[in-house]
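Encode chain A's predicted structure.
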Amino acid sequence: MSTTLAVAPLTTRDADVLVEAAHRAAEAAGVTVSVTILDAGGQLLAFRRDDRAVLISGETSTRKAYTALQLDAPTADLVDAVQPGGLFHTLPTALDRPLLFIAGGVPIHRDGRLIGAIGVGGGAPDQDHGFATTAIEALA
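Encoded structure for chain A:
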C-alpha cells in the first residue's frame, strides 16, 4: 500500500495575494506591469494589467508564467539554454504554445510540489524577476 501526501493547490485567494504583492513591488519601483498567475494545469487563475502598462506586457507575463510552469524553472535561469548550442535551443518550436525565455516567470511550489507559476512583464527582465519572487515570498 502506498501513501500520497496531499498538497494544497494554488487557490484564487493565493493568486490575489500574488498579484497584489507583485503590483505593490512594481509600484514601489515606479514600474507598471502585468501579472499572470497559472495553476499547476496551466489554467489562468488571475491576471492584472496596470492601465499604464503597454498592452504587450499582458502577453509577455502570460508566456513567462507558462514557460516557468512547463519547465519548472525560473525563466531567468533558462536564458542560456535557448541560445544556439544550448540545451533547449529547438524547444520553443516543438511545443504548441510559444515559450518566453526572459526573466520574470517563476514556478510556485508548495511542500516541494509544483502548484503553479507567476509571470510578470513590463519592467526590465531583472526587475520583473524580482517582482515575481517578492510576490512568492508574500504567499509564504
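The beta strands are 34-39, 44-49, 105-110, 113-121.
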